[in-house]
Amino acid sequence: MRAWEYEFGKLHNASPVDFDEQPGDWSGIDSVLKSRQGHLKLFWSSQVPGSRAPESLYLAMIQACTTGDSMSPKQRS
Questions:
Q1: Distances from the Cα of 7 to the Cα of 3, 17, 42, angstroms
Q2: pLDDT one-digit tens code per residue, 31-76
Q3: 3 state DSSP class of 26
Q4: Cα–Cα distance between 73 and 77 in angstroms, integer?
Q5: What whole-number distance in Å separates Cα of residue 25 and Cα of residue 29?
């Protein structure tokens, strides 16, 4: 199954929620937002364990995707 087929099926089979019968609960949103802020900070500016050298995991991921090896295992041998 392709990604677009999965998304189409999910949206096509969705049914609306009646918020009068099932009201939304946003009471725990503060802890969720604080957790997400911590993750963003970790990925954009963190330190290498031990040496405490600065690093950016997101920038490393972007660089790995743009300069990655596009050869298949058969082409390497």
A1: 6, 19, 30
A2: 999 999 988 888 888 888 889 898 888 888 888 887 766 555 565 5
A3: coil
A4: 7
A5: 9
